[in-house]
Amino acid sequence: MKSAKRMRLVWSALYELARYELTIALHGSGRLLQQLRRQSIKPRETDQEQTICDAVLLATCFYFKPVLCLQRAVCTVRLLRRYGIVARLVIGYRPSPFFSHAWVEVNGRVVYGSAAYQKRLQPLHVV
User: Under a CB-based contact definition with an 8 Å cutoff, are residues 92 and 72 in contact?
Assistant: First the structure.
């Protein structure tokens, strides 16, 4: 049963990766961020946080092209929220030399991405 749930999560993550690609191609990043802002969250107790993050990581291995941090973070946030976990997408940057990165936070703790970025980069956008 556990492996069936994991496989469902991986398939959901692959769907979210494809959905990201389609939204960006047809409507641009503004629509993507708008969708994230409007996504409803029904908070509930769950211990699937790490399982969901692992499923997204595994899905990126099977995806047909390289997956960058923003795409991974958006997909992770969508899945976490779908399972009742209040997650935030954070896009951070360093002005000089310019560098940017996206990660996922739950209760101020980085769950997908490196916590080092949270300390070293200034938040540019939080959804």
Answer: no
pLDDT tens digits along 89-123 = 999 999 999 999 999 999 999 998 888 999 999 99
In one-letter notation, the amino acid at residue 59 is A
d(CA 99, CA 97): 6
Residues in Cβ contact with 77 at an 8 Å cutoff, skipping those fewer than 6 apart: 36, 87, 88, 89, 104, 127
Contact 102, 69 (CB under 8 A): yes
Residues 8-21: pLDDT tens digits? Answer: 999 999 999 999 99
Contact call for residues 41 and 88 (beta carbons, < 8 A): no
List, as one string, the DSSP characters of 9-66.
HHHHHHHHHHHHHHHHHHH-HHHHHHHHHH--------S-HHHHHHHHHHHHHHSSS-
Mean pLDDT of the chain: 92
pLDDT of residue 1: 46
Report how far Cα 55 is from the mean position of its chain's Cα atoms: 11
